[in-house]
Design a protein that fits this description.
It is built from 9 helices and 15 strands. The longest helix has 18 residues.
Length: 238
């Protein structure tokens, strides 16, 4: 199986919708995915994710399954905190948490990073585990059963499908952490993907088990192909 994870295009968050640039990015990723071909399309219930998926769905003449658990609003409610100025921000962007996430004590906790005393009394552990459990259930529905002790997926029935999920960054770092079995602090600090970025993960069976492999992370080749700006969240050029 190939899993195509797509972040939504350039948005306005209030109201929740794509900007004109975001619609052009959605068209670009649609052209790219329509060349690859897909068997199933899944979409967050947010408007910006749905709008990003529309060109792909139209080009391939496919319907999508809405997955509300992937909506970034739910992740935001649980994985954000107030900063020193009283503004609500993603917890992983706060300077004190970024310092904690790169510390030896967090690295020593590995998968159990959320048991650190810092997160006691917050909704961070609950939010992380909610997405992790849903992600594992989603892959199980595709035939990939997580084996905790072995750190890999059991695959009894081969699956050659190509599936796409249109969702979000704040949700996505937790989702990728969960399905790749990489501790969340490491994903937050060392991996990133911009608007309409395409991440491709291969689930290739070997002797009845699967260790997922990232073939590309946050790739923006479709933007280059269409002559669109390759900026990270409209801030930095590459």
């Amino acid at each position: 199986m190939l899993l195509f994870f797509v972040r939504h295009g350039d948005p306005t968050y209030d109201p929740d919708e794509l900007t004109p640039l975001g619609h052009r990015q959605a068209e670009a990723i649609g052209k790219r995915l329509s060349r690859y071909g897909l068997d199933e399309i899944y979409v967050s219930s947010s408007t910006r994710a749905i709008e990003t998926s529309i060109p792909t769905r139209e080009m391939l003449k496919m319907d999508a399954t809405i997955l509300d658990w992937t909506n970034e609003k739910h992740a935001w409610d649980q994985l954000s905190l107030l900063d020193e100025k009283g503004n609500r921000v993603w917890a992983f962007t706060r300077s004190d948490i970024r310092e904690l996430f790169t510390s030896k004590e967090i690295k020593a906790l590995g998968e159990a990073w959320y048991t650190h005393p810092f997160f006691e009394g917050t909704t961070i552990p609950e939010g992380y585990l909610r997405i992790k459990n849903h992600a594992r259930e989603f892959l199980a529905s595709q035939g990939y059963i997580w084996e905790e002790e072995k750190g890999r997926y059991r695959n009894d029935v081969p699956n050659d499908k190509r599936i796409a999920l249109f969702a979000h960054h704040g949700f996505g770092v937790t989702f990728l952490s969960s399905i790749l079995d990489i501790p969340y602090p490491q994903i937050c600090e060392k991996f990133n993907f911009s608007h309409s970025g395409l991440t491709v993960i291969q689930f290739l069976p070997r002797d009845g088990y699967v260790i997922p492999e990232v073939l590309t992370l946050g790739n923006d080749g479709h933007l280059l192909a269409e002559g669109l700006p390759t900026k990270y969240n409209n801030h930095l050029y590459f």
